[in-house]
Amino acid sequence: MFLCSSGLEVLVPKGVILPPGETTMNPLNWKLRLPSGHFGLLKTLNQQAKKRVTVLARVIDPDYKGETGLILHNGADVTFPDTALLFCLTLNALD
Q: Which residue intervals define the domain dUTPase-like in the entry (predicted)?
């Protein structure tokens, strides 16, 4: 993960391949402890949306303690390797 202007950039783990038309669950191999009063939201960045790769609604509840993953859908006609996929995690206040 890397800091970006709107949150944390999330790289898809090595070895993930996203075939055309497929929806896959991809573990990120990390856990989060969110600040009190906040939830996490994994979002598609513009560069991925242009490729027609989207993260399906992925809210991370404040009390969630399991492993975090990305549910990705490839709406394009080409396969994307892990090096082509980047998403954003934002922290949002509950109020």
A: 5-80
- Structural element, H or E, at residue 48: helix 46-50
Note whether 55 and 72 are within 8 A (CB): yes
For each of the chain's 95 residues, which pLDDT tens digit applies? 555 566 777 878 788 888 999 998 888 888 888 888 888 888 888 888 888 988 886 788 888 888 888 888 999 999 987 666 777 787 778 87
- What is the pTM (predicted TM-score) of this model? 0.77
- Whole domain around residue 65: which residue ranges? 2-78+89-93
User: If we measure between CA atoms, which residue out of 37, 55, 47 comes closest to residue 91?
Assistant: 37
The answer to whether position 13 is within a domain reads: yes
